Amino acid sequence: MTVESNTPAQGGFNDQRIEIIIGVLLRTGVLLAAAVVLAGAALYLLRYGHDVPNYTTFHGEPERLKSLTEIVQGAIALDARGFIQLGLLILIATPVARVLFSAIAFGIERDYMYVVITLIVLGILLYSLFGSAS
Amino acid sequence: MNVLEFTGLVFLGSLLAGFLGALTGLGGGVVVVPMLALLFHVDIRYAIGASLVSVIATSSGAAAAYVREGYSNIRIGMFLETATTAGAIAGAAIALHVPTSAIAIVFGLVLLYSAYLSGREREEHGPQLQSSPLARKLRLDGTYPTPEGKQPYAVTGVPSGYGLMFGAGVLSGLLGIGSGAVKVLAMDQAMKIPFKVSTTTSNFMIGVTAAASAGLYLARGYIAPGITMPVMLGVLAGSMIGAKLLVQIKVKVLRYVFAAVIVALGIEMIFNGATGRI
Q: How far away is chain A from the Cα of B120, in angstroms, using its nearest Cα?
């Protein structure tokens, strides 16, 4: 244990490196999501561009745009709305991947207190994504 | 108005919302829901779903730019996310049992409070402040870049900040917003974290908070691709431009302008909710 490890700068260096990697990860996920949504948007506007939208009354989205497996199936079948929905799913997954990556990074740093804190956050996120689907 | 025009107009509005949201640290979500509900007469449940997804885009898109600057504090963010994500799930559960007019009124009140917070004078906290024992145990203090080099900062008021963060999570899950104003309040005011660290860490946390309720909203059919697509793309593009400019320009005047817009939207949301139009 050196004297420097008591100053914030030492921990700050490692954190800074982790944050930059996470930043790149986040941006990649967001750009991928945006690309998929854009592709879906092109399909959607070509097919339905001249329809009249009606969102004034709420009726809820159909099952094929709600369940994870059916969204993926819809996108594979080149369904425009399914494609957009897949991109949105990727976007929702980026923060989850971010938290997972943080847990690993804290583990490499041997900061076990923050590994536990991060895993609690991850558990809550996974509960929301999968616990509510059933 | 056909789908093409609707998509184009919603995209432009969302672009502006994302831009202002990133610059002011208040998030684009607070403007997206009133814009969709009041301007485009979209059912508030669809508006909330679209906003929630756009909030993730704002946060993740801007975070990539912020982390390079070295402002955001990952430990503060992660620790407080245990509170915001739990709150977000509670908020989404509450939203199931609340009528839309009540959501509109709560939304309006949150808008007014956000405007009040952003318009208020704030004091920059000096570096002489000592961290509280709990903050030191959690290793929450850090450094941030200033024109004079790296500046260390201390952290205090952890319990009250944590409680406020839970509240921010509830509002996020209930209203589909990032609750940036409450998050900044918790860090800047309660925990005495420097303002720029607070806003950037808040932006960083918002995506994780929103993702906690996004799964619940998707399963409930609140996320309509035709609305969410232009909102997400617009807010994302706007927030990336905003994040690039954040370090370069003074945001004080902009904050007042944005606050005025938020006040107007807040009053209209309360009026529409109270008269049963939403």
A: 31
B79 interface with A at CB cutoff 8 Å: yes
pTM: predicted TM-score of the whole model, two decimal places: 0.85
Q: Which one-letter amino acid corresponds to residue B96?
A: L
Give the separation between CA A41 and CA A58, rounded to whole angstroms: 22
Give, in order, the Cα–Cα distances in Å from A59 to each of A44, B174, B221, B222: 20, 19, 8, 9
Strand partners, A96: none
Domain edges within chain A: 15-48+62-131
- The shortest CB-CB distance from A95 to any of B60, B65, B142 is to B60
- Measured between CA atoms, the residue of chain B closest to residue A82 is B225
CB B33 within 8 A of CB B47: yes
* Tens-place pLDDT, residues A112-128: 999 999 999 999 999 88
Inspect the interface and report whether the beta carbons of A22 and B41 lie closer than 8 Å. Answer: no
Q: Residue B276 has what DSSP assignment?
A: T
**Structure-token pair, residue A73:** 């199936």
- Domain segments of chain B as ranges: 3-274
Q: Is B142 helix (H, G, I), strand (E, B) or coil?
A: strand
Q: Say yes or no: B149 contacts chain A, CB-CB below 8 A.
A: no
What tokens were used for A17?
A: 């490196």
DSSP B172-212: HHHHSS--HHHHHIIIIIIS---HHHHHHHHHHHHHHHHHH
**Residues of A numbered 78-97 whose beta carbons fall under 8 angstroms of chain B's beta carbons: which are they?**
80-81, 84-85, 88-89, 91-96
Kindly state the DSSP code that residue B38 receives in the 8-state scheme: I
Q: Do A95 and B82 touch (CB under 8 A)?
A: no
Q: How many beta-carbon pairs below 8 A join chains A and B?
A: 215
ipTM of this complex prediction, to 2 decimal places: 0.85
pLDDT tens track for B139-151: 998 888 888 888 8
